[in-house]
Amino acid sequence: MARFDLVVKGGAVATATDTFRADIGVKDGRIAALADNLEDAAEVVDASGRLVLPGGIDSHCHMDQPPGLDGARNADDFLSATQSAVTGGTTTVIPFAQQLRGQSLRAAVEDYHRKAEGKPVIDYAFHLIVTDPTPSVLGQELPALIGDGYTSFKLYMTYDSLKVNDRQILDILALARREGAMTMIHAENTDCIEWLTEKLELAGRVQPRYHATSRPNVVEREATHRAISLAELLDTPILLVHVSAKEAIEQIHWAQGRGLKIYGETCPQYLFLSEEDMGGFDDDDWHGARCMCSPPPRDKANQEFVWRGLEQGIFSVLSSDHSPFTLNKQGKFAQGPKPPFSKIGNGVPGIATRLPLLFSEGVQTGRLSLQQFVALTATNHAKLYGLHPKKGTIAIGADADLAIWDKDREVTITWKMLNDRTGYTPYEGRRVKGWPVEVFSRGERVMREGEVTAKPGRGQFMRCALPETAVPRGRPVVDPALFA
Ligand code: URP
Ligand code: ZN
Ligand code: ZN
Q1: Which CATH number is associated with domain 56-372?
Q2: Ligand nearest to the CA of 72
Q3: Which of 268, 269, 327, 404 is the most buried (most CB within 10 A)?
């Protein structure tokens, strides 16, 4: 019997701290050796001239979630979303198990396990979405689920069917602090959005482009500051998700400067899309719906701030927020062919394009080092959500989740190559340099030259540990005995 099941030979191996030449020996799905010259393997893959990176981790992506009030249905289930993920070099996903109001949180989790059954081609964990923090959710269900490995959850400050108010956020943050879980917050001021939306629609300003008008920077800034204040009050670490606006980034930077454990996430749409991509104010074709998400894509000046937030470490992670909706009545246009912007499904697809876009515009241009790229797309996700060092790095004992990149490959992005079911990509026609050509999950080849080779259902569910990043600083504003 060979010593290794697989040896990846001669590549430039990059982690969040180093780049070095090494062969990688894989045994039983894990990295068993890193050395100059490994022999004796059942299969040898030549990676000379290539980069070998930890497979990406996408810790913010939506799969098979129920329609919201806009009626838009996710186009991707756990099979197509994970097939698309590996196409772009991602080997771990953390989608959401969303509680419906009135539903027990445990039932929601069971529901999502059923949806995933037999489908994911790569390993996955779940964040929870808490929409109904009843006494039994707070008293029993959530603590028990955290103990079972669901150690992070998302709260919404907007969307009628999802939002929780400040008092409910406090209840949940107190619990997160006590139990050691990570809280993710979607920060937008819901009343401002509703008020502006009503005024815009009364004035007949209903085109997709007005989606951005209804959610200006200040709406995100105010909610970001409020979320930070609630977290500071209870000394509970939080992560602000899909941050888009300059002023929101300033709030996070300010909080970090005060020593608070406030983390930030951004997404490719805030680097590569702008409000013009949602069309013109007088458009009649509703074409811009394809780029509508919340918060909305903004302008060049905001994009520049997002880049700086990545460069300077204000953001810990870049996720896709893959929210796949078709451009028909199953998806964005569930309410009819040209509905007002407030009735169009929010979200853009991007699980496959996340890494190549950042690599091309970040690493190739010199804005980000390769180490920053690996940290932002893999290692920090694992650390934030209790999956490190099993996932997110190349080290002895880690899972052999590896993406071999051709850094010189020039690719024109087109939806057909992305293996998802949305029917479009907002990045159609964009040229990038650098693309993952071969991907392994636990040592098994799952993608080669754009073709997904993994069997449906081979992905394993993972329980997350309590993350180090969620440990409080120990300096609450009020006596923690009051909410322990
Ligand atoms: O527009 C977005 N971001 N849709 C997905 C849901 C969410 O808020 O992340
Ligand atoms: Zn959100
Ligand atoms: Zn999302």
Answers
A1: 3.20.20.140
A2: 1
A3: 269
